[in-house]
Amino acid sequence: MSKRGGFPGMGGGFGGMNLNQLMKEAKKMQADMEKSQTELAAKEFDSSVGGGAVYVKVSGSKEVKEIMIKKEVVDPDDVEMLQDLILSCVNEALRKVDSAQAQELGKYNIPGMM
With a threshold of 0.90, does the pTM exceed it? Predict the structure, then answer.
């Protein structure tokens, strides 16, 4: 150990970086990420399938906000088709949220985050 209490060859900091500056940058990045997450949560994403037979709207926080189903696709003899349409539509809307999250938060490039 050096006389200053640090590690030899470290220039008094981590790789020559000022620890206070590093902490300021980390706090700014955290604030920016929180702002991005809040903005993303406020956005809405939608999807429709079956030629518009089923429509779904979700928030950026993945909360289903609206589901619309056209009357002509409600067939009591083919409930499975309607279920499949709803699942497809909801999953597509959620994929859009995931894609927007990856695009927005991916710019921060933090190892282990995405």
Answer: no
